């Protein structure tokens, strides 16, 4: 929690959103640890954790009327495979290419899982908002433009 809040401060997240950013990161890391305890693969555990981070970030963004990136970037920070990237470089430097390749595959699969999770959740939220907008537009009963729709709704 405190590490994510520190990253949020360094990224310039406004003070009123720091606790929310921290809870997003805490939720993501907790889900990752839970998935590890049920013996999911590293990439699958990261995928599930990133899905939770993205969903909670979108929910906070809508409730608090703030950009989703305030919560998403900070929440994903604990999930980034930094140690695996370090190990790739380390084993390349000591000429152990087999171990370096193993860590490189892990790093790429985990990074891809995080990116896919964020993409899927973001797309789902965008489709939901497009569906709500088209439903509202269809219920406008033949009005010509949005100004006429808003005028009719206010009457």
Describe this structure in words.
With 155 residues, the protein is an all-alpha fold. It is 79% helix and 0% strand. The longest helix is centred in the C-terminal third of the chain and has 42 residues. The termini are far apart. The mean pLDDT is 86.
What are the main properties of this structure?
155 residues; mainly alpha
Task: Give the SSE layout.
Elements: H1 2-10, H2 18-37, H3 42-64, H4 69-76, H5 82-93, H6 97-138, H7 146-154
The dominant shape is globular
Backbone CA Rg: 21 Å
Low-confidence stretches: none
Major sheet details: none
SSE pattern: HHHHHHH
First-last Cα distance? 48 Å
List the total number of helices.
7
Report a brief summary of the structure.
The chain is an all-alpha fold and 155 residues long. 79% of the residues lie in helices and 0% in strands.
